[in-house]
Design goal:
The chain is α/β, with parallel strands linked by helices. It has 14 helices and twelve strands. α2 packs parallel to α12 and α11 runs parallel beside α13 (about 375-390). The protein starts with 5 loop residues before the first helix and ends with a helix.
């Protein structure tokens, strides 16, 4: 009897696990790891949100089942947020679904929309759930290179032409994880026009839409006239309000797609703990100066990372948005590849990053760096990196000898 089940066989080994194992071993040995590897916000959730959770939990009835599509107050708060932020009018009853984080929303969208063998157009590199949510649902991924938004959009028509059966869904994700790319409204206008031309549904992931630095606030695809005919947007409170562990997200837009998602969710969950949903509504409805403060912290970290690593000898492009930097491997380690570079960096310098190949084949040659350590720790990481780059010949020599001996 086979040891793997069907859906598990469709999933490759988790690339990041190799780096995570080294990280765990070194920490167990007492090594201090400066960890830029995971996009896990380290800032506290704003006090007024936590207070609302505590207040609501005091109701002894709060532990009962909730609503799988979200309580009405939260869905109304989500709709109002889109009205304030983007000027997009949403019906909270038919065009808003509260989800258990954006990841669950995306995965269950894939289940709702996908028949076995359906072809999905996905950027590469991309956040893993964008491809594997559909793969687990039985879909087939048509990867399109996406090292720039222009490259991605230019590749969509080619992907449609050479796919059989024709693709059914187009995935967008800006600000991007992992590449930190940012797009303007004209990009979304072109994307929607292209999707309508090729009869594609659109799923847009804007989980980092409030983490931006040098440009105007990132737009929503739903701002495009007629976008709601074919598109939904996946969003999250995780990064905006430092609420990653609370698991509160949303899917908004096309009512037919939202209804399909609600139907799937009704079989799978009863929604988040009601006090969490009430507190999430308080986050969206309450004072937003905390969002400005969180954004300013990320900007300070970004600027410190770019400047200190440049002095260390590693040129990291300044990301315009998101909580990540996307950087080419230093020239000394170019031939090593992103996985070996990431392993050596943590072993020799105590600095953890995410290898770009973990986000798809076109991520090879890059690493993702999360802005999840404070500025003091970032400067310490840069000092470690400077020594690491200075000793690259010796480090690579040892690595090659070790591999040859295996």
């Amino acid at each position: 009897m086979t040891t793997d089940f069907h859906r598990i066989r469709r999933l490759p080994p988790y690339v990041f696990e190799e780096v995570n194992k080294i990280k765990a071993r070194l920490r167990a040995e007492g090594t201090d790891i400066i960890d830029f590897g995971m996009g896990n916000p380290d800032m506290p959730t704003p006090r007024h949100i936590v207070d609302k959770l505590v207040e609501t939990t005091a109701d002894l009835k709060s532990g009962r089942y909730s609503a799988s599509k979200g309580i009405p107050g939260l869905r109304k708060a989500m709709a109002n947020y889109y009205g304030r932020r983007f000027g997009v009018k949403l019906d909270p009853n038919s065009e808003v679904i509260a989800t258990l984080g954006s990841k669950e929303g995306f995965a269950n969208l894939a289940n709702a929309l996908t028949a076995p063998g359906d072809v999905i157009i996905c950027p590469n590199p991309a956040y893993p759930i964008h491809a594997f949510g559909f793969i687990m649902a039985g879909g087939v991924i048509r990867h399109v290179p996406a090292l720039s938004p222009e490259e991605y959009l230019a590749g969509v028509s080619r992907a449609v032409k050479h796919s059989a059966p024709p693709p059914s869904v187009l995935i967008l994700s800006y600000p991007s994880n992992p590449t930190a790319q940012w797009v303007d409204l004209d990009f979304y206008k072109d994307a929607i026009a292209l999707a309508k031309k090729h009869d594609l549904l659109v799923i847009s992931d804007v989980a980092y839409g409030e983490i931006y630095f040098d440009n105007n606030p990132p737009p929503s695809v739903l701002q495009v006239e007629g976008a709601k005919d074919i598109a939904v947007e996946v969003n999250s409170l995780s990064k905006t309000y430092a609420m990653a562990g609370w698991r509160v997200g949303m899917v908004v837009g096309n009512a037919r797609i939202c209804a399909a998602l609600a139907r799937v969710k009704s079989y799978l969950d009863y929604g988040a703990f009601t006090p969490i949903q009430v507190a999430a509504a308080a986050a969206l409805n309450g004072p937003q100066d905390c969002v400005d403060e969180i954004r300013a912290i990320y900007k300070g970290r970004r600027d410190t990372l770019v400047s200190s690593m440049k002095r260390a000898g590693w040129d990291i492009p300044s990301p315009p948005a998101s909580m990540f930097a996307w950087a080419k491997i230093p020239e000394q380690y170019k031939e090593a590849g992103s996985m070996l570079f990431s392993k050596l960096l943590i072993e020799e310098a105590g600095v953890a990053v995410a290898p770009g190949v973990g986000f798809g084949e076109y991520g090879e040659g890059y690493v993702r760096i999360g802005l999840v350590e404070n500025e003091h720790r970032i400067r310490q990481a840069a000092r470690n990196v400077k020594k690491f780059l200075g000793n690259s010949d010796e480090i690579l020599g040892r690595a090659h000898n070790a591999m040859a001996a295996q």
